[in-house]
Amino acid sequence: MLKNLVYIILTSVLVNNYVLTKFLGICPFLGVSKKVGQAAGMGVAVTFVMLLATAVTHPIYYFLLSRFELEYLQTIVFIVVIASLVQLVEIILKKYIPSLHKSLGIYLPLITTNCAVLGVCANNISDGYSFIEAIASSLGCGLGFLFAMLLFAGVRSKVENANPPKCFRGVPITLVSAAIVALSFSGFAGIVETLFA
Questions:
Q1: What does the pLDDT look like over 47-61, one tens digit per residue?
Q2: CA dist 118 → 76, 103, 121, 180 (Å)
Q3: What per-residue string of b and e applies to 55-76 under the rule 16 or more CB within 10 Å gives b?
Q4: Distance of alpha carbon 185 from its chain centroid, rounded?
Q5: CA-to-CA distance for 30 and 177, rounded, in angstroms?
Q6: Among 36, 19, 37, residue whose Cα is nearest residue 28
Q7: The pTM is what?
Q8: Residue 108 — φ and ψ, nearest 5°?
Q9: SS3 (DSSP) at 19
Q10: How far, CA to CA in Å, does 173 sit from each of 17, 28, 29, 32?
């Protein structure tokens, strides 16, 4: 059981990274990765919301929606839950960590529309994960999001100090850098599979 949970977490972080392999959550990935502090704050906030959202949506799906044959309401219910949790996180950050709340700015409420959070909740259901496996998957996906944010913030700081050609400055060099970082993650698939073979 523990080996399976570790496998789920590692594959969620490295192999099935929602940002770099599934391209979910690109808006905060590109928008909040200019500074390492902001990237870390956003990554931790998204991880927290993913864990809470899974802890709430998983039982709602199996004990309410599935039991009463209301599975077609899954997306709507999950969005309402996620939006409520994001508001909770925003209130907590505003009260206890106002500097992080101010630095995240408009991107914090955008976690509500971050398709990575909804994608994790929905995929945990479609993959047939138990509650513990779903929590492990959400933790791995959140850590993968955090890892991608920190890695890309480091890359962007190096790129901004470089002097790219004029036509590559700004958004083009950012997208090329993101593509290279995403491509680098494709090598992890074989490593994780070998470890758990």
A1: 988 999 999 999 999
A2: 10, 24, 5, 26
A3: bbbbebbeeebeeeeeeeebee
A4: 15
A5: 11
A6: 19
A7: 0.90
A8: -65, -50
A9: coil
A10: 22, 17, 15, 16
Contact 29, 152 (CB under 8 A): yes
Confidence of residue 168 (pLDDT cuts 50, 70, 90): confident
Using CA atoms, how far apart are residues 16 and 29, in angstroms rounded to an integer? 16
Phi, psi for 114 (deg, rounded to 5): -70, 110
Measured in Å, how far apart are the chain's first and last C-alpha atoms? 15
Residue 34 neighbours by CB under 8 Å, 6+ apart: 153, 156, 160
**Dihedral angle, C-alpha 110, 113, 119, 120, nearest 10 °:** 40
* Residue bearing tokens 């950012």: 174
- What digits encode the pLDDT tens for the residues 11-28? 999 999 999 988 898 888
Rounded CA gap, 47 and 83, in Å?
A: 15
